[in-house]
Amino acid sequence: MIIGLILAGGLSSRMGEDKALMVIDGVTMLDRTAHTLRCMGAGLVAVSGSRPGGIPDRWPAAGPVGGMASAAEVLPDAELLVVPVDMPRMGSAVLLPLLTERRQRATRWAGHPLPMRLTLDATTRDALIGMMTLTGRDCSVTALQTRIGTTTLPLGGLDPILLANCNTPDEWREANA
Hints:
alpha/beta; Spore Coat Polysaccharide Biosynthesis Protein SpsA, Chain A; six-stranded mixed sheet; 6 helices; 8 strands
């Protein structure tokens, strides 16, 4: 089973408004991202973050790994497509290669820790919870990927604009020009 996990628990403080509710072509980023994941075969799309229908962050302010750890406590074993809500150009060209490469527990693009494919099972859950419970530990997505083993795909001919995530109004304008 494929589950789409949309990371939408951040404060959007640099953007100045909720990135999940920003609109492209009449559709919110949250709905647009969920639609993209369903088109990639996700039988379930879950949203991390304290919003209606979302999975509340058990570890507030713990970033994307905190959102993944919170989601891992309620989601079944599956292959996850973990994507941030703030990637307006993300589509099948970005996600399909991640989904098909399964030599290790996770797959990502070179220079981009997210989006990623992640095998969710007991081993991954233990790694996520371990990262949340140890003080002074690096809780970055890259640290998680190092801990569990990750295949990094070369960008090759993939246009980097497809991997742009937008944290500021200037980045939003540039990605949507």
